[in-house]
Amino acid sequence: DLDECATSPCKDHQFCLNTDGSFLCKGCDASCVGCTGEGSDKCKTCASGYVKEDEKCTDIDECNLPEKVCMKENQDCVNTSGSYKCVCSEGFEDKDGTCVQT
């Protein structure tokens, strides 16, 4: 078997898997920018919103940072994979970018 992966035939956001007589290009984990294999522990570097922790790229919980990320009144922070979003607190709704009582 010829190792086709030796010539790095895959794209930047993929890793190469040598198979018998061929190869496969598989997508890197969402937490990676470039990778050497499957999973968040095989990242070359971590994607934005992720930090290297115990040799793995893990999500940064922006909602638990000392500095508040959702600055508007009556607004809550919701952590998402690689990011966060600001939503109106319970009992409030978004009206032209302001959280007003419902």
TrEMBL record:
Signal peptide from the UniProt entry: none
Domain (EGF-like): residue spans on this chain: 59-98
Domain of life of the source: Eukaryota
Protein keywords: Disulfide bond, EGF-like domain, Repeat, Signal
UniProt key word Repeat: yes
Family: Belongs to the CRELD family.
Name listed for the protein in its UniProt record: CRE2A protein
The organism of origin for this protein: Mionectes macconnelli (McConnell's flycatcher)
Gene that this sequence comes from: Creld2a
